[in-house]
Design a protein that fits this description.
This protein has about 180 residues and is an alpha+beta fold. It contains 4 helices and 7 strands; from the N terminus they run H-E-E-E-H-E-H-E-H-E-E. Strand 2 and strand 3 form a beta hairpin.
Length: about 180
């Protein structure tokens, strides 16, 4: 990837590439198939738009040295782990509670920076801290589904049965990632 321009010489952005299946077998099936269909398409960027915007309520019990965070998320275990990491404390000092929430749409699966900041402020001030995004803030900052460009080829037998699928999908994950590329 030497031909990719660097914006910041001190930061190397890695572009992960993953392959699955048997490429040679797929190409052989496509070459000998009774029917082959191909598609090239761009899938635009999208975001989930929940009725209620993101919010967090953090309460710190100084006597027990425990933090409780109430958050409309879909992964309390990740939320607890991420906030513990951000604050530099043990996970057992945090209780994460996700009550009933509406649809997930993928945007609720992650820990947002504001949740960690609210947790930090609650510990620092020793009072309950509530944070909620406005609708405009949510449109700008909620995690989105990446756009992607896909080229796919499907091989079928004479009866329309699938023989092989070959696809090359390029996803625009942007400059920043929610999780490390491993």
């Amino acid at each position: 990837m030497e031909d990719v321009p660097e914006l910041w010489p001190h930061i190397r952005k890695r572009l992960p590439r993953r392959s699955f299946g048997d490429a040679r077998a797929a190409q052989a099936a496509i070459a000998g198939a009774a029917h082959v269909v191909s598609l090239k398409t761009w899938i635009p960027r999208a975001t989930g738009v929940m009725l209620e915007t993101r919010a967090a309520l953090c309460d710190y019990d100084a006597e027990a040295d425990r933090l409780t965070i109430y958050c409309g998320g879909d992964n309390s275990v990740r939320l607890k782990r991420d906030i513990a990491h951000a604050l530099g404390i043990d996970e057992d000092r945090i209780r994460a509670i996700a009550g009933d929430v509406g649809g997930n749409y993928g945007t609720r699966n992650w820990t947002y920076p504001e949740y960690a900041i609210a947790a930090w402020a609650a510990r620092r001030l020793k009072v309950a801290v509530r944070w909620q995004a406005s609708r405009s803030e949510a449109f700008l900052s909620d995690y989105h589904g990446r756009d992607c460009y896909a080229e796919a080829t499907l091989a079928l037998d004479a009866d329309g049965g699938f023989l092989a699928l070959e696809a090359d999908i390029t996803s625009n994950v942007g400059a920043y990632h929610r999780v490390p590329c491993r």
